[in-house]
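Our consortium's second objective concerns turning raw sequence data into structural hypotheses that experimental partners can test. To show how far this objective has progressed, the report includes one record in full. It was chosen at random from the queue rather than selected for favorable results. The single chain below, 219 residues long, was entered without modification.
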Amino acid sequence: QPHSRPYMAFLEIQDGDENYTSSGFLVAEKFVLTAAHCRALGLYSKIAVILGAHDVTKQEPSQQRIRVRRQIPHPQYDRENLKNDIMLLQLEKPAKLNGFVKTIPLPEPGERVEPGTACSVAGWGRTIGASNVLQEVDVEVLEDDECLKYDYYDPATMLSARHPQKCRDTARGDSGGPLVCDGKAQGIVSRVSDPGITSGMYMRVSAFIDWIRNAKKLL
């Protein structure tokens, strides 16, 4: 439903001569969480966040477009295996919270999501082509044993989930979006799935709560 996920953030990323998009979610008036691999690396690169959006091709009255002042990727982020694939974005100005723009709660440190838990994930990623409107899919959290076949999987900082029918899941452009379980952002889309072959991989947000709090304090 349009605007039913008011914490969602659409990221416009200009990285040198390249332009691409990603997803994120609002966790405080001046902070958005996303994946570290969504980072813009060029000297003159920049990121803008659009909040309150459903159709990003339209100038909806609900939208707030705010530039990112600072990108704070996790200091142990590894681009090769996407370990610690989490990044905090500090906005240039606070978001105006209303019926279209809201924050989403985070879990407590070390909080675990039981396998089989029904969750949802949303983003503007590809369907057949890139999606202009926010899409959502329900997924179930998997047992760690089902994910350990991937060499890069670390159960302490990652979790995986997929649609029970293995044919609907995250796709390119959904990176950085939240895995929402019982109203909390329990995961961050890190590796999108290949439906029917692999499962979506997420950073386990509860493993990074202390880092998030300390990063916000430093700013």
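The partners drew two points from this record. The two ends are 35 Å apart (CA to CA). The chain is about 5% helix and 35% strand. Both points have been shared with the crystallography group to help prioritize constructs.
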